[in-house]
Amino acid sequence: MQLFEVKSVAEVLALVEREFGPLEREPESVPLEEAAGRVLARDLLAAEDVPGFDRSTVDGYAVRAAETAGASEALPAMLALAGAVAMGRAPERPLAPGQAVYVPTGGMLPEGADAVVMVEHVEELDDLVNVLRPVAPGENVVRRDEDLRAGQLVLPAGHRLRVQDLAALAAAGLAEVPVRPRLRVAVLSTGDEVAPPATPRLLPGQVRDVNGVTLAAAARADGARVRLGGIVPDDEAELARRSAELLAESDVLLLSGGSSVGAKDMTERVVAGLGRPGILVHGVALHPGKPALLARIGEKAVAGLPGHPVSALLIYHLFVRPILARLAGERPRRPRPTWRARLARNLASHPGETTYVRVRLEEREGELWAEPVFGKSGLVGTLAQADGFLAIPPEREGFRQGETVEVFALEQGSA
After folding, report:
1. What's the chain's Rg over C-alpha atoms?
2. pLDDT at residue number 261
C-alpha cells in the first residue's frame, strides 16, 4: 500500500485557511445572558452613550476645579455646601460658583461641576465645605460617552463572545445579540476492538472508547452541538453508511481510528466516497499523529483522527479547532494560551517531523519548569498528567535541559 504524502504542520494550517470558510447559515438572536461562547453574526454598535452622564468615581464633593486651586490643610478652599445628589437621580439644580455638592460613587454630577474632591480631603462644617487639597478638571470623574459613544463599534462580526464582552454589551444597551448558529459536530468511533466506556467488563483484546468522549467534550467546549454516533466495527459498508448519514445531519464529522496504513484501514476510501472535493491531507509530518486525514465535502469538513488518544487530541488542537473556527465565521483568535518554562531534561526530536511532547508544569524556587511526561501515544494516563505540549521544530535535533521552551495549553474553553 502506498505510504502517506505527508505535509508539514505549516502547510496543513495554510490549507485549512484556504479551503474552509464560514458556512452559509441564517443568524439567530439570543438573549445576552445566553450569548457567552457564541460568534457574532454582525457588527454590534452602541445603542447609546456610556455612561449617559458625567459621573463621580468616588464618594466626594462635586466642585469647580478652578475654585480649589492652591487649597491645603493650612489654607483650605471654603465652599458653600449646596446639598447632595441621590443615587439614580439627577441633581436638583446646577452648581453655582462658590458651591460644592456631595456626590456618591457613580452619582451624576450637577451641571457646572468639572471635578470631585474625595471625602478624605474635605472637612464639612455645618453649611460650609473646607477643601484641603486641589483637584484638576476631570479628576475623579468619568465623562459622558467616555466609555462608549452612541453608534460606536463595540464588537465586530466574527468575534466569539467572552464573559467580559457581555459586560460591555449590557452597558451599551444591547439585550439581545445576533449570533451565528452553533456548528453541528458528529463523532464516530471505529474498530472491532472498541467498546462503549460504560462496558462493565471488557473482553480480551477490547479497549474502551476514549476518543469518542474526549473529542465530543473538546467540540462542546469550542461551542459546537455534538452528536455521538457510537462505534462502528471494521466493516467498510457499515462505516460508509454511518458516515454519510452523520455528515448529512452535521457540519463536521470526526472519525476516530482507521486512518493509518493497514489492511483494515478503510477510512480513506470511505471519506473519498463521501463527495467532492474530497481528501485534502492524509499524513502530516509530526509525531505523534502522522496519519491524520482532513477532507472537505462541499462546504463541510471531515477529519480522520488516529485511534491513539494522545495523537487524536493533538490533531484536534492543531487542525480541527482552526477548521471549526473557520466554519463558524470566527475572526482570527487570540494567540493560543502558552507558558514560557525551563525544560527539566534533555529532549530529542524525530528527524524531519515536528515533535510534540507532553509536559507537566512545576514551579521551583519561583521559576516555571516543564517536566516531560513520557509515554507512547496510546497511553491515556499521560494525558491526565500533562498540562500541555511543547513542539520541537523539524530543523532541530531537540532541546537541552535548562533551555527556555514554549508550552501550549491543553485547556479548552471558548464556550
Report:
1. 30
2. 53
CATH 3.40.980.10 fits 9-25+181-327, yes or no: yes
pLDDT in tens, 46-56: 989 999 999 99
* Class in CATH terms, 338-409: mainly beta
Q: Which segments within 247-394 are labelled E, that is strand?
A: 252-256, 277-282, 286-287, 293-297, 300-305, 338-343, 347-348, 354-364, 367-372, 388-392
DSSP 125-194: ETTEEEE-S---TTTTEE-TTSSB-TT-EEE-TTPBP-HHHHHHHHHTT-SEEEEPPPPEEEEEEE-TTE
pLDDT tens, 126-156?
A: 899 999 999 999 999 999 999 999 999 999 9
Q: Where in the chain is CATH 2.40.340.10?
A: 338-409
Residues of the chain under the 50 pLDDT cut: 1-3, 263-264, 414-415
Task: Please confirm whether the linkage preceding 51 is cis (ω < 30° from 0).
Answer: yes
Say what the pTM is.
Answer: 0.85
Residue 247 dihedral angles phi and psi, to the nearest 5°: -65, -35
Question: What is the H or E stretch that residue 60 is in?
Answer: strand 60-63
Mean pLDDT of the chain: 92
Residue ranges of the chain that CATH labels 3.40.980.10: 9-25+181-327
Distance in angstroms (rounded) separating the CA atoms of residues 274 and 240: 8
- Per the listing, cell 490533531 goes with 315
The domain 28-50+146-179 belongs to what CATH superfamily? Molybdopterin biosynthesis moea protein, domain 2 (3.90.105.10)
Kind of pairing, strands 300-305 and 252-256? parallel
SS3 content of the chain, % helix, strand, coil (to 5): 20, 35, 45
